Amino acid sequence: MSQPRSSGYLRTRYAQDWMLLETRTQRVGFALFAACALALPFFAGAFHLDIANQVLLASIGAVALMLLTGYAGQISLGHAGLLAAGAFTTGILFKEFAAPFWVTLPAAAAVGAALGVIFGLPSLRLRGLYLAVSTLALHFIVIYLGSEYESKRGFSTGVVIDPPRLGSWTLTDARAWYFVLLAAATATVLFSLNLMRSRTGRAWRAIHGRETVAGALGISVQRAKLSAFVVSSTLTAVAGCLFAYYRGFVSAEAFSLFLTIQYVAMVIIGGLGSILGALLGAVFVVLFPYGIEAAMKATALADRLSSLIFAVNYAAFGLVMILFLVFEPKGLVGIWQRVQAWFLLWPFKQKPVGK
Amino acid sequence: MQLAVNIAVLAAIYALVSCGYVLIYRTSRVLNLAHGELMMLGAYGLFTTASLFAGYPLLAIATSALLALIVGVLVYVLLMRHMAGEAVLAAVLTTIALGILLRGTIILFWTAQAQHPIRALGLTNQSIAIGDAKISAVGLTLIVVTACVYAGLYAFLRYTAWGIRMRAAGQNPLLAAQRGIGLHRIYALAWGLATFTAGLAGMLVACDSALDQTMATIGLKAFPAALVGGLDSLLGALLGSLIVSASEVLIIYYVDPLLSEVVPFIVLLAMLVVRPWGLLGTREELDRV
């Protein structure tokens, strides 16, 4: 991973090529961040803990979408459908067979993988716009199947799921959830970072760059595309399963097109082609409605518009997305890199010529 | 017989909406996913002008149609112009974001309650008997308007200078620009016309039933119709609308009403598997992210 640095960083051993954190500054920074993340639940109240959990859940889905769209370059507008697939697998297995979480979680992953193949098959023939449209169509079909299950089995308002249980211990406490989700998110990020440094990840980036050239280099374009879809949708379905357990409730209405748009927005606002971007985007999009609410309270608009908060949210979200797309296509990561570069180059404005 | 009438009305709705998708796509290669929201905006515009010009329904309709045209041009000038030359994904996402923005703004201005613009216009929606089937007056108007719009667009694209320029810009923007065609003006015109037809569709649908947030779904369901026919062919859009509406009405009637939301998308998927470029569309080198 290349980053702007003020001084040269020279690798002297091959082992250093494998390190995720290369310099002492990076390691110290990461240790501080990890300490903060671990200490957070002991200081945060119930409300803030819930937000933190939502951020962690969203970040798993956002990283999964980033792998597909940001790295492999395949547009997907079916992300909410995949989340729904994971959640509904969990809900159906729980309701019909009273399955414990160590059955539903792998089952959700398996359904995700299978759906990944189905979502990915059009990508072998279609590109760009047409691919986006086909995933959009699949989204509607998955949601339809979910709501069909709900109405046929008489759970018209949704499926209620008990919290996961291990022996006599049940996972209900928000603080316990925080650590579970933190572990899951960390595992996802580590998996993705390492995957991108592997043969598969390089193949994905190659087909993103140009398919013909990738094919000429000996990469099986079909296999790379399908594997991108399968990995991404497996992770997404697992996120959906966790979501179902966390909320304790599955309903087709929760997985609207707007959810897909939110995930796409995370990837875009964060910055395409960067895991850090996916995380920043997840934080931004999850915190956004709370920020709007706080801003409305501060300006005393909340009382007048209290019934319309969701509309204000919609409008502001659309506006922010447009602003990012038009003025900052590289997203938050782009801003972050520019800030870094500004401090590194200070007092100069530009990189010296020839570097 | 009633089924045939239902199919015809639904096909007219889809055709009127989907010609907007086709106009914008064939001119500027942008897929406008905010079309449903623009349609809704047109309908709410009618609702407002109807109460402004109470007693003059024709004036109200004309004003709101003109407003829709202006809104479409403004959308291009203020927003989509900046996305010219960007990647497909960015342009599509911008229209999605625009859709969210519009939806939020519409609720802020007009609340989320269902409205009935036809009452505000002071008209009634009688049902007319054709043989043993019934059709609402607005439904009949819808079919007539759709026919007029398609005939008008055909004549416009075929015989007028601006229409020929528009086709040229769609075929090869670079060559068109070198022949002195102002692409920005052409694109703005395409957006204006598309929003105008979407507005017409929105107004008529709102008069036929009610006006609320679900209208954007109709816009989204009309998109498969455009794609099935071929995203750059007006005749294709007409054909696609017939196919999609026929399958939707028949499946609702014979199989399951719950399926109505998905039928268009199933048709779309089937089409994408067989002929991604649609029935009458031109086969093109599909673009990348």
Give the topology:
The complex is a heterodimer of chains A (355) and B (289).
Chain A (H helix, E strand, L loop, with lengths): L23 H20 L2 H26 L7 H19 L3 H25 L2 H26 L5 E2 L4 E2 L2 E2 L3 H23 L2 H11 L1 H6 L4 H27 L1 E2 L6 H14 L4 H24 L10 H19 L3 H15 L10
Antiparallel strand pairs in A: 1-4, 2-3
Helix pairs in contact in A: 1-6, 2-6, 2-9, 2-10, 2-11, 3-4, 3-5, 3-9, 4-9, 7-9, 10-11, 10-13, 11-12
Chain B lengths: L1 H27 L6 H18 L4 H22 L9 H23 L6 H5 L5 E4 L2 E4 H23 L1 H11 L1 H6 L4 H26 L6 H15 L4 H21 L8 H12 L15
Textual characterization of the structure:
The complex is a heterodimer of chains A (355) and B (289). Chain A has 355 residues and is mainly alpha-helical. Chain A has one domain (41-345): Orthogonal Bundle (ABC transporter involved in vitamin B12 uptake, BtuC). Helices cover 72% and strands 2% of the residues of chain A. Chain A contains 13 helices and four strands. Chain A has helices at residues 24-43, 46-71, 79-97, 101-125, 128-153, 174-196, 199-209, 211-216, 221-247, 257-270, 275-298, 309-327, 331-345; strands spanning 159-160, 165-166, 169-170, 249-250. In chain A, a hairpin with a 2-residue loop joins strand 2 and strand 3. The longest helix of chain A is centred in the middle third of the chain and has 27 residues, at 221-247. The relative contact order of chain A is 0.15. Chain B is mostly helical and 289 residues long. Chain B has one domain: ABC transporter involved in vitamin B12 uptake, BtuC. Helix content of chain B is 72%, strand content 3%. Chain B has helices spanning 2-28, 35-52, 57-78, 88-110, 117-121, 137-159, 161-171, 173-178, 183-208, 215-229, 234-254, 263-274, and strands at residues 127-130, 133-136. Chain B has a two-stranded antiparallel sheet with strand order 1-2. In chain B, helix 1 (2-28) packs parallel to helix 6 (137-159) and helix 1 (2-28) crosses helix 7 (161-171). Chain B starts with a helix and ends in a 15-residue tail after the last helix.
